[in-house]
Automatic annotation (TrEMBL):
This is Alkanesulfonate monooxygenase SsuD/methylene tetrahydromethanopterin reductase-like flavin-dependent oxidoreductase (Luciferase family). It comes from Rhodopseudomonas pentothenatexigens. Keywords: Monooxygenase, Oxidoreductase. Residues 12-256 form the Luciferase-like domain. GO terms for molecular function: monooxygenase activity; oxidoreductase activity, acting on paired donors, with incorporation or reduction of molecular oxygen. The keyword Oxidoreductase applies.
Length: 338
């Protein structure tokens, strides 16, 4: 059994079916409801700042949580360079309580941005001798500590409202959320770091090109390194691992019109910055029988317990629900995912 969810970037533009920010937000809620009805397991959103995409995630996650009953809701990922960990702990706790403990919060040090050093506009600066990536990981460690729910703040001796005894923690506190934090790792080293800290692992459609092997082979090796580090750290619970993929079964004329032409059938190489060579995983689009055979060969999907389907949200709720249903109906059962 493999959990299957969708991942939306929430793109919007006046030229698409998703014409405004309001459309992107409301359609994401509608798609989460549709995905739950179809039997999917997760509704995840990507966070990008300074872009016509989804940004502030917690109001959206809370709304999805209030409109659904079973489906996991989450992020993949929130850029921690932009985050105040204390405010984030409060927002995450509230969203998780509204959803009844279904929040799966993916965080990371971030990715290439729309603007130069956008986190500076949010009021954050790396400390002396620290890179922006170091700052993002530091913010993440503060968040993890806060989510333990331990008191740390000295209470006012003359408070407006009565306090419980001892040091105070942030509220609202949601029990168990600390175990549902995921780290989006772009390298093997950061996957190992996440394992040591007890975070679940999210691995997307790109990673640092560390060996020159095909993307799915490198990603599978990253997952195995993560699990080895988890075991060595002595954690008692079983960690979760997700991978993201673009997968489109060609089952009707709409699918063939959108994705039937030869697309990105091979991995791509690019540079995230001057020093970082990255490998981008291929997309999958084929008739169901051919698609099943292609996916059987993907080593990283086989290693993961959760698959996030990156969706073309600008094509609308109905079409994306159709794609999810086609995968759950025609692809997942023969592969043993269902």
């Amino acid at each position: 059994m493999k959990k299957i969810g969708f991942l939306s970037f929430g793109h919007w533009s006046p030229q698409s079916r998703t014409r405004s920010a309001a459309d992107a937000l409301l359609e994401t809620i509608d798609l989460a409801q549709a995905a739950e009805q179809l039997g999917a397991d997760g509704a995840y959103v990507r966070v990008h700042h300074f872009a016509r995409q989804l940004a502030s995630p917690f109001p959206l996650l809370a709304a999805i949580g209030a409109r659904t009953k079973r489906i996991e809701i989450g992020t993949a990922v929130i850029d921690m360079r932009y985050e105040n960990p204390l405010y984030m702990a409060e927002d995450a706790g509230a969203a998780d309580l509204i959803a009844g403990g279904r929040l799966q919060l993916g965080i990371s040090r971030g990715s290439p941005e729309q603007v130069i050093d956008g986190w500076r506009y949010f009021g954050y600066q790396p400390a002396e001798g620290e890179s922006d990536a170091d700052m993002g990981r530091r913010h993440a460690e503060v968040l993890l500590d806060l989510l333990r729910g331990q008191g740390f703040a000295q209470p006012n001796p003359r408070p407006m409202f009565p306090n419980p005894p001892g040091l105070l923690r942030l509220e609202p506190y949601s029990e168990g959320l600390r175990d549902r934090i995921w780290w989006g790792a772009g390298s093997n080293a950061t996957a190992v770091w996440a394992a040591r800290l007890g975070m679940n692992l999210q691995s997307s459609t790109l990673k640092n090109d560390e060996t020159g092997e095909p993307f799915h082979v490198q990603q599978a090796a990253q997952i195995r390194a993560y699990r080895d580090a988890w075991k060595q750290a002595g954690h008692t619970r079983t960690p979760r691992v997700s991978v993201s993929r673009s997968i489109f079964p060609l089952v009707d004329d709409r699918d063939r019109a959108y994705f039937g032409r030869e697309g990105q059938q091979q991995d791509q190489i690019g540079y995230l910055d001057e020093q970082t060579r990255a490998i981008f995983g291929r997309s999958y689009a084929a008739e169901p029988d051919a698609l099943i055979e292609q996916l059987k060969a993907d080593e990283a999907i086989a290693e993961a317990d959760t698959l996030l389907l990156t969706i073309p949200n600008q094509l609308g709720v109905d079409y994306n629900a159709h794609v999810i249903e086609a995968i759950l109906t025609h692809v997942a059962p023969p592969l043993g995912w269902r």
